[in-house]
Amino acid sequence: MAWTAARETLELGPDAGPGSDLPDADLRQLWLAALTALLAIRDGAEQLAASAALSAAQRGADYPAIGAAAGMTRQGARRKWPGLAGLADGRQRKLMWWKTRGHQFAECARAVLTTAEGQPGLPWLANLRTRLAEIEEVSPAQRLDALDLMLVDAHAVALNASTPADPTAAYSIGLLAALTADAYAATNSHSALINRDAKACGTHDCPSEPIVELLRPGIDHQTVPACRQHAVEALRQPVNRIVTAYRPDVALPVFAEAHGGRSERT
């Protein structure tokens, strides 16, 4: 492969090689071209190996198994490909969330697409519509990647769409924000959710622990940490939306409480 690439680079015939009767200057260039090709092959193989290790980890392989396959110790595999531990758990969490909430999410996203159609400043609408059409058609393995992309677009739409006057349409946008927050909380690792920088509830003198962050346009579009009580109170105003949930299974119950349990029945 390397000699073929070298010959193509130097535009030499198929018989040109290290043993051919070429002048030293030509052979030198041939060897240099082969060296370049070999290094490119090595880099490509490294990238493919990293991709294979990642895919194996997502399907349950641990570092001892990955190291054995790569001819190294588990410590060597961990140094070479850090961050693979626990990926299978993350994959299962995504599949479980989609199995539990996927239908509700898709129905809500379609409702928002209908109500937000034509709103300026929402370039994510077209992407979200495409992702919704694709996610049920792809294989289970591809579905996780499609879900990741769809959540990005849904989150952007839910937080940037203007609040419509129609209460039902406004409710759908708020629910989509809560669903995306719930999805991220459910599919991230516990350690990723704990990084809150010791935030307190954004309501003055409230000692309660915050469980969500809200986007409140009336406060300079800043995100505001909120305990359960103050989150419920704020979410009764459709303009306020959940941006982040600090742990799984809080965003939707809080939103439901603010709307009389409606999201739980949807």
Structure in words:
This protein is mostly helical and 266 residues long. The protein contains 12 helices and 3 strands; from the N terminus they run αααααααααββαβαα. The chain has a 3-stranded antiparallel sheet with strand order 2-1-3. Strand 1 (212-216) and strand 2 form a beta hairpin. Helix 1 (2-10) packs across helix 2. The chain is elongated and about 85 Å long.
Reconstruct the topology from this structure.
Layout: H1 2-10, H2 24-58, H3 63-70, H4 74-80, H5 87-116, H6 124-135, H7 140-160, H8 167-187, H9 190-194, E1 212-216, E2 222-226, H10 228-235, E3 241-245, H11 251-258, H12 262-265
Antiparallel strand pairs: 1-2, 1-3
Helix pairs in contact: 1-2, 3-4, 5-6, 5-7, 5-8, 6-7, 7-8, 10-11
Strand order of the largest sheet: 2-1-3
Q: Calculate the terminal CA-CA distance, rounded to whole Å.
A: 59 Å
The percentage of residues in β strands lies in 5-15%
Portion of residues within helices: 55-70%
How many H/I helices? 12
Total number of strands: 3
| Global shape | elongated
* Helix/sheet category: mainly alpha
The Cα radius of gyration reads 26 Å
The sequence of SSEs as H and E is HHHHHHHHHEEHEHH
Biggest sheet descriptor: 3 strands, antiparallel
Mean pLDDT, rounded to whole units? 83
Which parts are unreliable, with pLDDT below 50 for 5 consecutive residues or more? Answer: 190-195
Output the keywords.
12 helices, single chain, three-stranded antiparallel beta sheet, 6% strand, 266 residues, mainly alpha
